[in-house]
Amino acid sequence: MTVHIIRREYVEIVRRKSFVIGTAVAPVLMAAFFLAPVLLSFFVPTQQFLMAVVDQTGEVGAAFVAALDDTLSDGRAKYVATLVPATGARFEGARDGAVAGVRAGSLDIVVAVPETVFEDGRAGYITKEVRNFQILDDLESDLTDIVMRRRLAREGVDYERVASLTTPVRLEMSQITSKGGVEKKDFLTEWAVVFVFVMILYASLLTWGVTISRGILEEKSSRVIEVLLSSMRPRQLLFGKLIGIGLAGLTQFAVWSLAGIAITGMGGAMALSVMASVDIPPAVWLYFVGFFVLGFLLYASIFSVVGSICSNEQDAQQLQGIVTLPMIIPLLTLMLIIQNPNGPIAVVLSFIPLFTPMIMMARVVIVPPPLWQVLLSLALLAVSIHLAVSFSSRVFRVGILMYGKRPSLREVIRWYRLAG
User: Fold this and answer.
1) Model-level pTM?
2) Tell me, what's the pLDDT at 266?
C-alpha cells in the first residue's frame, strides 16, 4: 500500500504546472548565465568617445593622448582625443571651454591635468553622462603611468628599471590532496562552488519541506486524508508522502544536472573557461545526493508535523518560519567555515543534525574531513531522522484528524504519548 502512496505523490507532484515550470525555468536561467554574456557581446554598440585633454603641465598631455590606443571591434579608435595646451593662467579658461563642448554635445569627456598633478596626483574627469568604470580605469591607468614616468625622470631615475624592481609578488594557492599530491586552487572558485552547493541544498530542503507541509494541509482541509486513512495506516501514508515527494525532488535535480551538462557542452568559450577552473570530484556529487536525501527526510518529517497540527495556511506559515530558522545558521557561518573548515566551530556544527547537510557538504567541498567525522555525522543524522520520523508519525496519526484551533506544544506532546 505504501508503494501506491509513493506513486500517487510522485505522479501528482510531477504533473503540477508549478513543478514543470520550475524544472524548465532553472535550465533556462542557467543557460542565460553562461550564454548571455557571449551573445550580448555581439550586440554591444561600438561607440567612440570624443575627448579633450586640457594639459597645464606641458609634459603629460601629448604622451597621454598617444597612450589612448584602444580600438573597437570594427577597428576604429575607441578614444578620439584632442590635446588642448593650457599652461599657466590659461588652464581654467581652456577647461571651461572644453566643458562647454560637453554641454553642447560636441565632446563626451574632458580630462583636465593641472600642473599640481605631480605633487598631489589629482586630475579632473568631466562628463555629461555617467560613463562605465572601464573607461575611468583605462584613463586613470594611462595617466598614472605617464605621471609616474615624469616624476621619476625629474629625479634622474629610469622608470623601466624601477618597474622591474618593484614587480609585486603573487602567491599562487595550492592544496595538498588526499592522495598526497599538490594542485593549484583558486579561493574565489572554491567559495563559489561551496556557495552554490549550500544554497541548492538550502533552497531544495526548504522548498520540498514546505511542499510536504502544504500537501498534508490541503488534503486535511479537503477531507481527502480521511478517505486515504480508511484503507491504510497513518505511518504508511506519511512514509509514502515523504518518499514520493523526495523522489520528485531528485527527479528535478536529475533534469537540472542533465541540462547543466548539455549547456556546458554548448556554451562556447565562456562556459568552458568558467568550468575549466572548477574541478569537482565525483565523490562530491555522491555526498550531495546523500546529504539531500538525508536532509530531506529530517526536515520533511519536521514539516509534516506542521501540516498535521495546523488547520489553515496562516498557522502553517508561522510554524514554517520557526522550522526554517535552523537552516539559516549554516548560511550565516558559511564564510567562517570556508576559512577554517577543520576548526572547532565547523566540526561541532557539522555534528548537529539540523546543520549537518549544509555544513558537512561545505567541508567536503573545501577540504575533505577525516572519514570518521563524516561517518559520525551521518550516523547522528540517521538517528535523528529515525527519532523525527517516529515523532512525526505519532503526531501525524492524531493530528491529521484534528481541526480547529492550533494545538499548543503541550498538546502536541500529549498526542505523541497517546499515539504510542
Assistant:
1) 0.63
2) 53
